[in-house]
Design a protein that fits this description.
Elements: H1 3-15, E1 17-19, E2 26-32, E3 35-46, H2 50-57, E4 63-70, H3 72-79, E5 85-92, E6 95-101, E7 112-117, H4 120-129, E8 134-137, E9 145-149, E10 155-160
Parallel strand pairs: 3-6, 7-10
Antiparallel strand pairs: 1-2, 2-3, 3-7, 4-5, 5-6, 8-9, 9-10
């Protein structure tokens, strides 16, 4: 690949990146079907809390931003686990991980990719028309949590942009 082509690819990549006004949040965006999709975070399961520091912070260089507890009710509704789960949100520039600490060797449920898009209702309709699984969960006065699954069982959380 020539230097000119490599520079053009890099510049195109930079044009597909956006940052918040305060510079604290950068994401990659993709335009498809006239909808801009942005990567919000990737959720993974970890076995022990110390992995947050030992691996994600010290090895990969991610910064823990906050910790939260996924309630047993929400855990059951979203991932089928009848207990609360500690979770950690870690970020480094363009990538963010939501890390769920699962008990023992449990390896179910919370792994997903979260994307943001401008019209979730249209997406829900497309999913239902093609018989993809959709789960919309109302929590208090917050926007609904929306999860969809592909035919292979991979989970995607969809946030409204």
């Amino acid at each position: 690949m020539t230097t000119r082509k490599r520079n053009r690819l890099f510049n195109n990549w930079c044009n597909d990146r956006f940052c918040s006004n305060d510079g604290t949040r950068c994401c990659i965006r993709i335009k498809t079907q006239n909808v801009i999709i942005k990567l919000n975070h990737i959720a993974l399961n970890i076995r022990e809390v110390n992995e947050v520091t030992d691996f994600y912070q010290n090895i990969l260089g991610f910064h823990p931003e906050y910790q939260f507890e996924l309630s047993a009710t929400l855990g059951h509704t979203i991932v089928g686990i009848n207990q609360s789960l500690p979770a950690y949100f870690c970020k480094e520039e363009l990538v963010a991980f939501e890390l769920f600490v699962l008990p023992g060797n449990m390896n179910i449920g919370s792994v997903h990719v979260c994307i943001e898009m401008s019209n979730r209702d249209e997406l829900i309709t497309r999913c239902q028309n093609k018989e993809y699984k959709v789960n919309s969960i109302q929590i208090d006065n917050n926007p609904n949590l929306l999860f969809i699954w592909n035919q292979s069982g991979k989970c995607f959380e969809i946030k409204e942009e």
